Amino acid sequence: MKIVATDIARSFGSTRALSGVSITLEPGRVHALVGENGAGKSTLLKILAGAERPDTGSIAIDGQPYAPRSLAEATALGVRLVFQEITINPSLTIAENVFSGQLARFRSRGLLNQAAMNRAAQALLDTLAVDVSVAQPLSRLDLGQWKCIEVARALSTEPRAVLFDESTAFLNHREADQLLAAMRALGKRGLVVAFVSHHLAEIAAVADQLTILKDGSKVGDFAAGELDRDGIQSRMVGRDLSRGLYPARPEARLAGAPMLRFIGVTAEGLEPTSLSVTPGEILGIAGLKGAGGERILEIAAGVVRPRSGGVTVGGAPLVAKTPADGWASRIAYLPGERTTEGLIVDASVLDNLVMAKPPRRGPFFDRAKARTMAQAMIARLLIKTSSEKARSGSLSGGNLQKVVLGKCLAIDPRVLLLNNPTRGVDVGARTEIYRSLREAAKEGLAILMVSEDLNELIGLSDRILVMRGQRIAASIDDPAATSEDAIIRHMT
Ligand SMILES: Nc1ncnc2c1ncn2[C@@H]1O[C@H](COP(=O)(O)OP(=O)(O)OP(=O)(O)O)[C@@H](O)[C@H]1O
């Protein structure tokens, strides 16, 4: 199968998501789509997969016109989309997830032939060369394996093209490696494979071909290896980023008593832990899922109660018994899941940005002040939205992430708790976010950041704690002198 899209345009209201984009996807080649948040990458994949219609332009498959009106129609014509979000149903078995919507295939006279379905699901998983057995309960698998089950589901309809929309965004690097290997395997089998990613290392690892989009237009098509990292990044953002992603660390640390302190804190999923973050400091936390890093954030945010030990903020015992208490005492929390925990997608960008601390005049909501605050945050974090009144759900994934961060910064916090703050955020915007975080730290903010992106931890943190087995396994005082490998060794 060869897919040729010509002159595709698509607008949403006054936003031009795509204009005049042409792209050719060849069989057996892995094609990467890159660009800043809001560049139009997801919209392009959705159009190819039947989830959106183009306003103008045409698509042909092997020379035949192709204009799917729905995901189902595209599926029937051999094109499947794997979404960014996890779409596994944990109450079903692995095989039922693989064949969801198609169970009738394994039913005869009202009875489900579980054994046949399991065999078929296993066969699909085996073609991906991933280590998943259908006999395992879903709860034993990691997110990367879940994602591979979704790929197996896509393969269950025998597609000839599989499109991945930022499918590694919620995976740690080990999980992402499994998915990338699966993509490579599909390419080797002669399928069309296209994926969106913000991680240039992933692109270097699997892509044969690269298309760069910017503001809805195509910058160009490139063969793998034709551009180096700087070349890709500067074409994505339209300016030179070679000065580096991360701001310089301050020469001297702010002196001062710890702003956040854990003294022998235990909780479910956390062995006795002591740590402190001083004003001005960015403390990074590395570790595999479940190793305790996220738990530390949840305790400091008032989401999880410690079993024993003490937590102090600004020298006084933490009173956050609920997340609302946390916000009220100027502890801002950016959770790992933006759309379920971090914000309300049906509310406007403005409402989300000021939600944690709505400005008031007397007893009333001060809309004029809220608008000024929201506009300032949109400018500060380069949030791409038609206006502060737009529905948050209309923003691209990376821009939503910036809204959640903006909501945190808008309360002028003393402590900022971050769980993977730049998930799905493009490289240009990340530079701005890192700069904003460093500036806020310089003004006395204490930042505690859990991240699966080890480069981010190394580049931004003043110190790194590595969690293993729900306790601190190592403390790295000079991140500039460490390496990803060294951190991974402590993690595993
Ligand atoms: N359903 C929609 N309603 C309104 N605007 C939309 C809708 N879908 C996309 N847009 C807008 O179209 C533009 C392109 O969005 P798209 O999701 O394709 O970007 P993207 O390149 O995938 O970004 P990201 O890297 O952040 O996921 C954005 O400005 C976005 O706000």
Automatic annotation (TrEMBL):
Residues 3-240, 254-488 form the ABC transporter domain. It comes from Kaistia soli DSM 19436. Keywords: ATP-binding, Nucleotide-binding, Repeat, Sugar transport, Transport. InterPro entries: AAA+_ATPase, ABC_carbohydrate_import_ATPase, ABC_transporter-like_ATP-bd, ABC_transporter-like_CS, P-loop_NTPase. SMART domains: AAA. This is Ribose transport system ATP-binding protein. PROSITE patterns: ABC_TRANSPORTER_1, ABC_TRANSPORTER_2. Coiled coil: none annotated. GO terms for molecular function: ATP binding; ATP hydrolysis activity. PANTHER family: CARBOHYDRATE TRANSPORT ATP-BINDING PROTEIN MG119-RELATED, GALACTOFURANOSE TRANSPORTER ATP-BINDING PROTEIN YTFR. Pfam families: ABC_tran. CDD domains: ABC_Carb_Monos_I, ABC_Carb_Monos_II. The lineage of its organism: Bacteria, Pseudomonadati, Pseudomonadota, Alphaproteobacteria, Hyphomicrobiales. Belongs to the ABC transporter superfamily.
